[in-house]
Design brief:
ATP Synthase, domain 1; 2 domains; five-stranded mixed beta sheet; 10 strands; 26% helix; globular
């Protein structure tokens, strides 16, 4: 029996498919989910989400959020989710450099530091996923 995978952002439902396996970027390290997995709720870091369907990997760059696993369903609620083939590698690398430069000009105690650090992490995820196509 396959997993039902759903990826949702604040703007839209990005994906709703059946998958054989889902690999997620947890804040405490990446983890995989297969049918029959123990129920859990996990915090996600910005990174690469991969789902396998029929032996074929499908890659997404995701922002931070949460995953809920129960009854062979994986619900992923994240700030952003982009398919690898939707990401332009040159633009992703340029966005990453710009975000890193902006963050490096800030101090950790600045009020916008955390938001800018999250932008760097999402930009790094997009660049990484785009480079793996």
């Amino acid at each position: 029996m396959p997993l039902a995978l759903e990826i949702v952002t604040p703007e839209q439902r990005v994906l709703s498919v059946e998958a054989d396996e889902v690999r997620l970027p947890g804040v405490e390290g990446g983890f995989g989910v297969r049918p029959g997995h123990t129920p859990l709720v996990a915090a996600l870091a910005a990174g690469e989400l991969v789902y396998l369907s029929g032996g074929t990997p499908h890659r997404y760059a995701v922002g931070e959020g949460f995953a809920e696993v129960s009854d062979d369903r994986v619900r992923v609620l994240v700030e952003e989710a982009l398919r690898a083939d939707e990401i332009d590698l040159n633009r992703a690398e340029s966005d990453l450099k710009a975000a890193q430069a902006k963050l490096s000009a800030m101090r950790p105690e600045d009020s916008a530091y955390s938001a800018n650090r999250a932008q760097v992490e999402r930009a790094a995820a997009r660049a990484f996923v785009a480079s793996r196509r």
